[in-house]
Amino acid sequence: xxxxxxxxxxxxLEPILATADRHDGxxxxxxxxxxCDAPPSLVLDAxxxxxxxxxxxxxxxxxxxxxxxxxxxxxxxxxxxPESAIAACVGTKEFVxxxxxxxxxxxxxxxxxxxxxxSYPTYEMGARVASLRAVAVPVVDGALxxxxxxxxxxxxxxxxxxxxxxxPTGRVDDLSRVATWGRHHGVLxxxxxxxxxxxxxxxxxxxxxxxxxxxxxxxxxxxxxxxAGVRAGFYAGDAEVVSFLALARQHAGLMxxxxxxxxxxxxxxxxxxxxxxxxxxxxxxxxxxxxxRDVGFSVDPCEGAFxxxxxxxxxxxxxxxxxxxxxxLVVSPGEFYGERSDAYVRVAMVQPTARxxxxxxxxxxxxxxx
Length: 370
Fold this sequence. Notes:
The chain is globular and about 60 Å long. It has helices spanning 14-20, 41-49, 63-77, 92-106, 122-129, 151-156, 175-185, 221-225, 239-251, 258-268, 272-294, 316-327, 353-365; strands spanning 28-29, 86-89, 112-116, 133-137, 139-140, 143-144, 157-163, 188-192, 215-220, 233-237, 298-299, 307-311, 329-330, 332-333, 344-348. It is 40% helix and 16% strand. Helix 2 (41-49) runs antiparallel to helix 10 (258-268), helix 3 packs parallel to helix 10 and helix 4 (92-106) packs across helix 5 (122-129).
């Protein structure tokens, strides 16, 4: 067998989970970025009322779904995208993992996926599953080091992934600079924008603000509306690329369930619940960054998303074990996000504020505070 599937990263946390569970009150799991807060009631009502769907839903998304997305992009990012350049996807993890396979069908002369060296692991895994070259691009102060991409790698690239705000670092990149590089080199830029609503410096940004030629913006409802379980999102941008992908994905039978499409269209039409969620995450980030700094951790600047990127200068698995022992806090070791990140851990603000206050109190009372 030429390809050995690696262990799923979070399955490696079992010993750390067991350590954290020894605390009175149990673990406080901030390792996986699964939202803990309630979805908006208007969306749940729409989901419950969508009982008339009997046939197969459109793979590309219903007219209602795509109209809601187009209105959302115009309202939140001031961009006009025709519905023909928008398509639904079954959650963006699926899209990220499968995009290289479909792009390879579109252009067999290229065999490389470029992705940030510190990043969500599915960018690399999508390339490997497609039997393509996965080339990590260095990240300097939160920005892709585009000058480090060799001419050969650029010529062979099917796409360049950018993720801003970043998972795991919370840093914000200059999407204009990345779009310009992609167009200059004839490389599709795929911009993963699932955290864009949670941008803490300036306004939310989309690569579509730089025009649609040669770019895709990828959005998820999971983080924006606390709807990770319904598995829905969209991609939009270059009309020719969107059309090709939509047809290929239709043949593959990739469809967002009809009731889900109706409910998600309602979610994209409402911003009040997102503003309330922004306030919750901001409060939690402030709470946990102060608690970790108070016991000697270095916390990188958080410019967006709902993660803290934290180090105490030792191996991330060691740090994760120490935090579990001291406070019951479960975090994800940095090596999950790239070879150059093994001295960090990522802390996700996916527990209620009251639970994070327990972590802060445990840290104050722990041996780490001596």
